[in-house]
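The instructor's notes for this session suggest beginning with a concrete chain rather than abstract definitions. Hand out the sequence below and ask the class to guess, before any prediction is shown, which regions might be ordered.
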Amino acid sequence: MKTTHLLSLIASACFAAGRSLRHVGLEDPVDSRPRRALPNRGYTSHGTHLHKRASSYLTNATADFAVDGAAIPDVDFDIGESYAGLLPISDNANETSQLYFWFFPSPNTAAENEILIWLNGGPGCSSLEGLLQENGESFLMAGTPTATNEEEAAAQFLGFFKNFVETFSMQGYTVYVAGESYAGYYVPYIADAMLNASGNSSTNSTSSLAPYTLDSIMIYDPSLTYGVLQSNMVAVPFVDYHANLFTFNDTFTSYLHTQADSCGYTDYLSTYLTFPPPQAPFPTPPNANGRTAGCNLRRDIQSAVTLLNPCWDIYQVATTCPLLWDVLGFPGSFDYTPPGFDTLYFDRADVKSAINAPDTPWAECSDGVLDEDDSLPSTLSVLPGVIERTQRTIIGHGLLDMILIANGSLLAIQNMTWNGGQGFSQAPTDEFFVPYHAPGPDPTLAGAGVMGHYRTERGLTYVDIGLSGHMVPQYAPSAAYRQLEFLLGRIDSLGDTGAFTTPPT
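After discussion, reveal the predicted structure:
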């Protein structure tokens, strides 16, 4: 994606842990399965052609961060201009905490004075996943080395971003922030802090952020509210909707429905997942602490479905055997690399050296990041104010995701009040259209046509993507590209049937 400058912020991972279920209020399941050791795309489009410009980012101040795009180990093409390394989280002379970033300037002249920040979730998962498997070139990524809650994480990010902007002379750029999963916390809290800094520069230590304009945000399959609302409460309707992927016997299916009724899930959904919603804050949901016996239905479902389908993936529930793998070591619901691949790609010394990364152990997801975060979910705290102070807020959700289920995101929206109203007045039924386009080589194939449904009201857009799991840019790249165009204001709505405004490259 070369529509705007992309900055991806990468957590400095220390210990392999896998994506945790704790961020949705559940215990991590015990997996008894054995573990094994660790150019030119020829694309054409009927849209506007990409106009390139000369880079102005290589300066004396940035030279030490420059990455040799032709010298990335095991990559047989030049990845282009990029910069990577560590910057401190404040301007204090004795600051020791730093964030690692990898920045890809866009050659597109339409992207001048714009920057898009991407954050993966976890908490504690590296945004190198987003770079390598989802978005491709053009982002900025970072971690949170010492934060214990979202306010601290946002403050650390702003301190880092101040240093980044000054280093790369990007004062006055329009800023967009996007991410997925636990970034449902990160992105709104960072956006809120950035907006507060810009509006209260006389008393805020990050006052030099005042000239920076945060325009819009986008979060995919995000943690938004009580964990039970995005998991156990909506798990049985999810299984019913995807019944052909959960071929349970009648006894177990009956058990699930009986438990959903007795746990209070069925009544809560029928009362509050309505359009428009009841016009008052929703009561605390049943099993909010996740400890009610017999009510952890998603765990029961996961245990049962993995007997039917040992390669089942909670992040994309249509996945079947054989078990695939990737160089990051986390291809699905659990970490895996085949025999003979003992070192993860980004844990190799030659790779770290090539991308100016610190010589510390790396894993895709790690413990030790916001483990005790007790910050309120964003829909119950900062997100309404962010929606009211930005141009666009987009919540996207893959319908094949079961780690955070789409109906849970809709429940969170229906319980949120912003710009003078609560929730959506109508369900998301408008057709989300992705332009038809000339196919490139086989590895770049991506869908087109109606790929989901959306609803926009009072500055908030919700969109679902039918053939996507948790990582939307990975599973539905053309859909994510179109949503990015909407985020950047290149198109007026997700129902736009025109061509891509900039050809994907």
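Then share the key points. Confidence is low (pLDDT under 50) at residues 10-18, 30-53, 200-210. The longest strand covers residues 449-457.
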